[in-house]
Amino acid sequence: MCFGITLVDRVLGKTLSFKDKTIAITGASGTMGRALMSELSKRGAKLVALTTSPNVSFQTTDSDNQINKKIEVLTWQLGHEAELRDRLQKVDILILNHGINVLGDRDSASIYKSYEVNTFSVFRWIDLFLETIPDADNANQKEIWVNTSEAEVNPALSPLYELSKRAIGDLVTLRRLDNACTIRKLILGPFKSELNPYGVMSASFVAWAIAFLAELGLRDIIVTINPITFIAYPVKEFWRSLYFRLFSHRKQ
Ligand SMILES: NC(=O)c1ccc[n+]([C@@H]2O[C@H](COP(=O)([O-])OP(=O)(O)OC[C@H]3O[C@@H](n4cnc5c(N)ncnc54)[C@H](OP(=O)(O)O)[C@@H]3O)[C@@H](O)[C@H]2O)c1
Predict the structure, then answer these.
(1) Which of the chain's ends, N or C, has fewer CB atoms near its CB within 10 Å?
(2) CA-CA distance, 61 to 71, in Å (whole number)?
């Protein structure tokens, strides 16, 4: 029974309503960033676009399919995440979605860039957001979503993409042992975008599925056409989490 409850806790986070939630999303000008903003706006969320691209414009539609231009746009730069610390205080859900794929490159610059963008920058955002929780009025609403990839368990035909995404995937598994807030992972298969022009799913379908599964409360949100991921990911996550729980501890 106790094991059953623990298992349910591990699979499910909190069920969720997006209505009137303030949701900030990185990689906002990219394909998934835009698709998620559009989907979450339809479900009643207030959006903050976090982008590294100056001069991009955003618009979404609301639940009545009316054009809604009220998106707050904030620019940020790699290594300067902390400049937006104050704004994070009132954010309910932070979606970490930015990412790069250097494909077959393996030179040192590509190694540093892959880890800096896909792993360390994402982790800095997580730390910043967690720092806002103790003083936040909305502490019990706060969540982080991290868009890792099914590359956590499957080949992506891009070694540095796999390495850097597996690293952030494992760091999230480690950090969420502390239960500071709900941290969901998005484990996505190939969708068509600038990062992956050969993706077979559409970003709008993937964004709809993410929102639907998050509303159900799933902590690890898997959207893919690859059946192996539905087995390999939960098995890997269970053992990884158990190993981390046994051999690491919270700093007092
Ligand atoms: N496409 C797929 O098949 C697939 C599958 C699984 C997971 N994913 C993940 O989904 C996320 C979104 O990818 P996407 O396919 O939508 O790709 P995308 O259209 O290329 O969007 C990625 C966005 O990340 C931001 N970004 C790019 N380089 C950056 C840098 N050096 N520093 C900080 N931000 C940077 C940019 O947004 P701003 O200019 O707005 O900052 C860019 O538009 C990524 O994390 C990716 O790994 C993709």
Answers:
(1) C
(2) 11
Asked if the structure places residue 252 within a domain, the reply is no
Query: Beta strand pairing status for 60-61 and 72-75?
Result: unpaired
The CATH number of the domain holding residue 27 is 3.40.50.720
Please give the tally of structural domains in the chain.
Answer: 1
Q: Is the CB of 149 under 6 A from ligand 1?
A: yes
The region that residue 164 occupies, defined by phi over 0 for left and psi between -120 and 50 for alpha, beta otherwise, is alpha
User: Is residue 19 in a domain?
Assistant: yes
Q: Does ligand 1 come within 6 angstroms of the Cβ of 161?
A: no
Mutate which of 57, 120, 193 for ligand 1 pocket (most atoms within 8 A of beta carbon): 193
Whose C-alpha lies nearest to ligand 1, atom 17?
Answer: 195
Domain with 90, as residue range(s), is: 2-246
- Is residue 60 lining ligand 1, measured as CB closer than 6 Å? no
Q: Quick check: is 197 in a domain? A: yes
CA atoms within 13 A on the CB side of 215: 15
Mean pLDDT value across the chain: 92
pLDDT (tens digit, 9 = 90+) per residue, 51-87? 999 989 988 776 666 666 679 999 999 999 999 999 9
The band of 1, judged by pLDDT with boundaries at 50, 70 and 90, is very low
Q: Please, are residues 164 and 175 in contact by the beta-carbon 8 Å criterion?
A: no
Task: Write out the catalytic residue numbers.
Answer: 161
Within-domain flag for 96: yes
Residue nearest (by alpha carbon) to ligand 1 atom 8: 149
CA of 252 to the centre of ligand 1 (A): 36
Backbone phi, psi, residue 168, to 5°? -70, -35
**CA separation for the pair 243, 240 (Å, rounded):** 5
